[in-house]
TrEMBL record, chain A:
It comes from the Eukaryota. This is MHD domain-containing protein.
From TrEMBL, chain B:
GO terms for biological process: intracellular protein transport; vesicle-mediated transport. Adaptor protein complexes are heterotetramers composed of two large adaptins (beta-type subunit and alpha-type or delta-type or epsilon-type or gamma-type subunit), a medium adaptin (mu-type subunit) and a small adaptin (sigma-type subunit). Subunit of clathrin-associated adaptor protein complex that plays a role in protein sorting in the late-Golgi/trans-Golgi network (TGN) and/or endosomes. The AP complexes mediate both the recruitment of clathrin to membranes and the recognition of sorting signals within the cytosolic tails of transmembrane cargo molecules. It is found in: Endomembrane system. This is Beta-adaptin-like protein. One of its GO terms (cellular component) is endomembrane system.
Length: 440, 756
């Protein structure tokens, strides 16, 4: 069995039960106490998200200030259980309109109980698609189409949709203006050695889509990925146009994408769900354009003084800007005093994370601001070698830039009524885990 | 079966006891029950909400059961749902009152709104009161035939619920055959999926008593059913796909064409956004190709990319789940992943459970071409703030050193660790140097020079201290100060808390005595005297043994204590290959995360000291005492103990426990550790596990008949996989062959690997 969850609990950080749903009788009612005493009140918390206590296994996840705990008594499918939690949270968020935290749960607990009933029955996951659930579980409940105004929307139709073949889209949608928004969001991960060589670098990207389209449209998306382009030139028997092509290491798609067609024709074609969804995810390891180069030098001058110099080079187009750039340069715990000189942005010492934090709100391309800082340390005898030199970490967002070089070549919308659509495409690259190690 | 939570849980002190509130609610509900005023539903809703919220925080509100039922006559669907929830929670402890609800639930089961029919049916089946089951059969039968698919999905699960309340009622009502019919004919995929879940559960549980049920269970993995489900796979929800794929993984195809057909059909599932679906597909691929060596290897190549993507996306918990699976694959076929070692580099902020797995994988994939990079990277982690991870990475360096031929550079690194002047680094490095010396005695010269400079005062951890003492004894001829260090250690005999260290000290002094008698004689006397007076049985016995041995004949004693030693070529593996295969068979489940087969954590007999009890306080003590047992278990015979100490403590505990539990369930895990250690060795040496297909069957509990399910005499022509797939089997195979195969020269080890 993939998951026959016996119970699901929502706890706050103190361990109080916000909501619980017991799906099966095969676990005792004091399961949550076991979780509290053996996981929450020990150092175990955070050491492993799967724990066995007695005959039961606990899967837990922390999301903002809430722990979600699934209890199973059999040899369950772990990936499935976590995915279920993630999907359930996404579903709740789409109902609450954003945040998922303790307050949101308290304010919506009746709704959550309703949803928990529908998304899982006797421990088996059922339907988690917000699009469909929203047809029959509405926030106003009583204003639900079935109970008060059954004439508005015929009942059988709606329930048929619950389990229908195109489970992610209902029929008969009408928009005055047909629009599609595409967001290509990439996060670039870097691990740079202290000698300046790239140890590991990859990009995980996703294409987010927001559709406001009438009827049952068929969409086709073309990217500048290598395989797709090759296939296309094969089909049209003409050479590939010059220009950069991207080699995707791996792609995964939303369930709406016709995978058979992707495998044969290498085109992404699909009937999209209404509203917002994640169309695809991809991973690239070759030919990544790093938006920033970081050149740090740290000199320890004796026992109580350090000199920190950091130069950041932006290597994207001069017309582009990075936003919200934050560079965190670690310093020893016993830092007493710091003084800075920066050519751009502002820097300060943050004692709670033991870092010099240098912020640059708007960072143009092809520039290289520097920061030099002097750090004075309290001299201690005991901790002479305890500074482990954690890596420099960086946060940023670069709009209209993709670290992978991926571009949308076309997005075709076809619907039998033949309406016109407006398509919007945005690109943004964010820092995933961008780490530069320091020489020791 | 345990009672529902709320009934027995006393409210925690921070929460109101709720007595006053409950009686308050009671009277308010009473007022509303009969009223038909407009807007009454809204005030009812507020009250119901209050009741539910009390219920959630653990206040017993079963006292208002009657009033809740009276208020349930409403058309408001939200009110109904709250009422159903309440009733479901308390019916079990109030069976008499539950009878009151039957009426309105049965009425709702015939409502014209399918939503209400479904909800009522679900609640009816959730009452869990044994003497009410007679009321379930009728509505369930109607529900299964309902023309609305929502009601049918609910009814199918309802049958399963009924089975758990009263199995005979469910069987007598002939529900399982009905479910089977639905499974094979219902147009709605969710109904089909639920039928499959229900039937799997019912027939597995029935199989022990009924021949027919076990036949039926096997029929589920017969060709017609599997093909039917596979042909509809794209209609199913992602969760149902996992369910179906799990079933397909158990199917044994007739020939390789069938295997390729299935793989061809499922290949696109590897691109599914849901990691659970991808993992299930991988399981199918791996299990189908077990007997086809070359294709099996191609499967590894094919699934690498999707797995690595899954690891790098999603929450840490999700990537941990995937990483555990990647881990088991890396361990089975390390060379296939050798070029991907950079994916296993740790990020600074990653949780330690992720780092730990990555370290193990880095260790496993190290080969001639990447060792340098990997060891360099591991040395970075040795300075990590996270001390367990720092330790783990030093151990990893040591493990790589033990599995490589060219250890030059690695030995230098280890010696550098010794000079880092961090207690835990020194401790781990000492243990490793000891293991290295046992495998590569030729390095003794370099190592001893460094080890000799370490002050024994700076080494506190028993394991490290024991290692240091072992080296002092073994190489006393090369270490100037050895007798004197041993002497000072012996002087502090009383202060030494660890029996393990004292045992090693005894042996080291003996060894030293035979190498440098004049300098050691005095120490030997002191050590033997202290040993004889020791309160620890093992220490006492060993001292007595040495004493008598020396009395009997000194040259015999020398031969016993200082025999010519052979370098250890391979250190014993702590986990038997049989266990590893079991885990592999249970791919995509908890077994992989726990790294032990499911019987060890689901069977009560194997669970050992972590028994769950109502007195929670006891539990933690039990867990602690289990930890304390470990050192005691570890201090058995001198060299055999060293043999095992390469691996970490936990592994030993796990393995000794596991093996003793597995191979001879009769004996208690805490006793007889010698036997179980021997059992490890014997089971690894005689590790030729039964052929894997048998293991699968066994796993499924199909031990009775290993033969495949009753095969339909002639396969009807309709029984074909949809030809939606774009490639014919021939080209498909061709395509798979084209996938790059890394390191084909290491092909042989792989062969043996998967045969086992």
């Amino acid at each position: 069995m993939p998951v026959a969850a016996s119970a699901i609990y929502f706890l706050n950080l103190r361990g109080d039960v916000l909501i619980n749903r017991l799906y099966r009788d095969d676990v005792g009612g004091n399961m949550v106490d076991a979780f509290r005493t053996h996981i929450m009140q020990t150092k175990e918390l955070g050491t492993c998200p799967v724990r066995q206590i007695g005959g039961c296994s606990f899967f837990y996840m922390r999301i903002s200030n809430v722990y979600i705990v699934i209890v199973v008594s059999s040899n369950a499918n772990v990936a499935c259980a976590f995915k279920f939690v993630v999907e359930a949270v996404a579903l709740f968020k789409s109902y609450f309109g954003g945040a998922f935290d303790e307050d949101a749960i308290r304010n919506n607990f009746v709704l959550i109980y309703e949803l928990l009933d529908e998304i899982m029955d006797f421990g088996y996951p059922q339907n988690l698609s917000p699009e469909i659930l929203k047809l029959y579980i509405t926030q106003e409940g009583v204003r639900s189409p079935f109970s008060s105004k059954p004439t508005d929307r015929p009942v059988p139709n709606a329930t048929l949709q619950v389990t229908g073949a195109v489970g992610w889209r209902r029929e008969g949608l009408v928009y005055k203006k047909n629009e599609v928004f595409l967001d290509i969001v990439e996060s670039v991960n870097l691990l740079m050695s202290s000698k300046g060589s790239v140890l590991r670098c990859d990009v995980t990207g996703k294409i987010l889509m927001k559709c406001f389209l009438s009827g049952m449209p068929d969409l086709k998306l073309g990217l500048n990925d290598k395989i797709g382009l090759e296939k296309e030139s094969q089909l049209k028997s003409r050479p590939t146009k010059s220009g950069k092509t991207i080699e995707l290491d791996d792609v995964t798609f939303h369930q709406c994408v016709n995978l058979t067609r992707f495998n044969s024709e290498k085109t992404v074609s699909f009937v999209p769900p209404d509203g917002e969804f994640e169309l695809m995810k991809y991973r690239i390891t070759e030919g990544v354009n790093l938006p920033f180069r970081v050149l740090p030098t740290i000199k320890e001058l004796g026992r109580t003084r350090m000199e920190v110099n950091v130069k950041i080079k932006s290597v994207f187009g001069a017309k582009m800007f990075a936003l919200g750039v934050v560079i965190k340069i670690p310093v020893p715990k016993q830092t007493a005093k710091t003084s800075f000189q920066v050519t751009s942005g502002r820097a300060k010492y943050n004692a709670s994370i033991d870092c010099l934090v240098w912020k640059i709100r708007k960072f143009p391309g092809q520039t290289e601001p520097t920061m030099s800082a002097e750090v004075e340390l309290i001299s201690t005898m005991a901790e002479k070698k305890s500074w482990t030199r954690p890596p420099i970490q960086m946060e940023f967002q670069v709009p209209m830039f993709t670290a992978s070089g991926l571009r949308v070549r076309f997005l075709k919308v076809w619907e039998k009524s033949g309406y016109n659509t407006v398509e919007w495409v945005r690109y943004i690259t964010k820092a995933g885990s961008y780490e530069i190690r320091l020489a020791s | 079966m345990a009672p529902p939570a709320q009934a027995h849980r006393s409210p925690s002190p921070s929460q109101p006891s709720g007595k006053g509130e409950v009686s308050d609610l009671k009277s308010q509900l009473r007022q509303l029950a009969g009223s038909r005023a407009p807007g009454i539903d809204d005030s009812k809703r507020e009250l119901f909400k209050k009741v539910i919220s009390y219920m959630t925080i653990g206040i017993d509100v079963s006292a208002v059961f009657g009033e809740m039922v009276m208020c349930s006559a409403t058309s408001d669907i939200v009110l109904k749902k709250m009422c159903y929830l309440y009733v479901g929670n308390y019916a079990k402890v109030n069976p008499d009152l539950a009878l009151l609800t039957i009426n309105f639930l049965q009425r709702d089961c015939k409502d014209e709104d399918p939503m209400i029919r479904g909800l009522a049916l679900r609640s009816l089946c959730s009452l869990r009161v044994a003497n009410l089951v007679e009321y379930l059969v009728g509505p369930l039968g109607l529900g299964l035939k309902d023309n609305n698919s929502y009601v049918r999905t609910v009814a199918v699960i309802g049958v399963l619920k009924l089975y758990h309340i009263s199995a005979p009622t469910c069987i007598d009502a002939d529900f399982p055959p009905t479910l089977k019919h639905l499974m094979l004919n219902d147009p709605d995929p969710q109904v089909v999926a639920n039928c499959l879940s229900a039937l799997q559960e019912i027939w597995s549980l029935e199989a022990s008593t009924s021949e027919e049920a076990s036949r039926e269970r096997e029929a589920l993995i017969s060709k017609p059913v599997i093909y039917y489900l596979l042909n509809r796979i794209k209609e199913f929800s992602e969760w149902a796909q996992c369910l179906v794929l799990e079933l397909v993984a158990k199917y044994v195809p007739l020939d390789s064409n069938e295997i390729f057909d299935i793989m061809n059909l499922l290949e696109d599932r590897l691109q599914h956004a849901n990691g659970a679906v991808v993992l299930s597909t991988i399981k199918v691929f791996l299990h189908l190709t077990l007997s086809m060596t070359d294709v099996h290897q191609q499967v590894y190549e094919r699934i690498k990319a999707p797995l690595l993507t899954l690891v790098s996306s999603g929450s840490p918990e999700q990537s941990y789940a995937v990483l555990s699976h990647l881990h088991i694959l890396v361990m089975r076929a390390p060379f296939i992943f050798a070029s991907d070692y950079k994916h296993f580099y740790c990020q600074y902020n990653e949780p330690s459970y992720v780092k730990k797995l990555k370290l193990e994988m880095l260790t496993a994939v190290a080969n001639e071409s990447n060792t340098y990079e990997i060891v360099t990277e591991l040395c970075e982690y040795a300075a990590n703030v996270d001390i367990p991870i720092a330790r783990e990475s030093i151990r990893a360096v040591g493990k790589i050193a033990l599995q490589q031929y060219d250890v030059n550079a690695i030995v230098d690194r280890l010696l550098q660790f010794l000079e880092m002047e961090k207690d835990y680094v020194t401790a781990e490095a000492l243990v490793l140097v000891k293991d290295l010396l046992r495998k590569y005695p030729q390095w003794s010269h370099d190592c001893i020079a460094v080890v000799g400079s370490i002050s024994s005062q700076n080494v506190q951890e028993p394991k490290a201290k024991a290692a240091l003492i072992w080296m002092l004894g073994e190489y006393s001829q090369d270490m100037q100060d050895a007798p004197y260090i041993l002497e000072s250690l012996t002087e502090n005999w009383e202060e030494e808390p660890s029996a393990e260290v004292r045992l090693h000290l005894l042996t080291a002094v003996m060894k030293c005595f035979f190498k440098r008698p004049p300098e050691t004689q005095k120490v030997l006397g002191a050590a033997l005297a202290a040993g004889l007076a020791d309160f620890h049985q093992d220490v006492h016995d060993r001292a007595l043994f040495y004493h008598r041995l020396l009395q009997y004949n000194v040259s015999v004693a020398e031969r016993v204590v200082n025999p010519p030693k052979q370098a250890v070529s391979v250190f014993a593996d702590t986990q038997s290959s049989e266990i590893k295969d079991r885990i592999f068979d249970e791919f995509n489940s908890l077994s992989v995360v726990y790294q032990k087969p499911s019987y060890m954590f689901t069977d009560k007999d194997y669970r050992g000291p972590f028994e769950f009890s109502d007195e929670l306080g006891n539990l933690s003590i039990a867990a602690e005492s289990a930890d304390n047992v470990v050192p005691a278990q570890g201090v058995e015979a001198n060299d055999k103990d060293l043999l095992l100490s390469t691996s970490e403590k936990e592994e030993i505990r796990g393995a000794t426990f596991n093996v003793s539990g597995y191979s001879a369930p009769l004996y208690d895990s805490s006793a007889a550790s010698v036997q179980s250690e021997l059992a490890i060795i014997s089971s690894t040496s005689a590790g030729s596990a039964p052929s894997s297909s048998l293991a699968i069957d066994d796993l499924l509990g199909l031990g009775l008949s290993a033969a495949p399910a009753p095969e339909p005499a002639s396969v009807p022509p309709s029984l074909k996989l949809n030809s939606k797939a774009i490639l014919d089997p021939g080209t498909f195979q061709q395509k798979w062959r084209q996938l790059p195969i890394s390191l084909s020269q290491v092909y042989l080890p792989f062969l043996t690997l998967i045969l086992f």
